[in-house]
Amino acid sequence: MAVLIEVVLSALVLQAVPATRPSAEDVGRAYYLFLQARIAEDENDLSTAIDSYRQAIAILPNAAAARLDLADLYVRQNQVEEAEREVRAALASDPANRVAHRLLGGILGAKIESTSA
Question: Considering Cα of 48, then 49, then 55, then 56, what sign does the dihedral take?
């Protein structure tokens, strides 16, 4: 019984510990990848842009800006499901993000329009 109590208390303590902050090195690396993605996108190298956005998101999963830029790229490539997934992930980390809400509204509107056509 004592072991069970210890396990339960350990689980509660782990849940109460806030997520660790990313290191300055991680933030710098993610920002570098984000900028590389934008450059690749400007040069119309979309596969490199997607890959760079994905790498930045892997380092900083709560970075709404990278997710929204990736979603915007997906929308322009008519990859609506992927775009919606990224926008929803951005909203999960930043629920008040107006750009994300606007983009999600456009995506959902386009989905409705395409099914009614």
Answer: positive
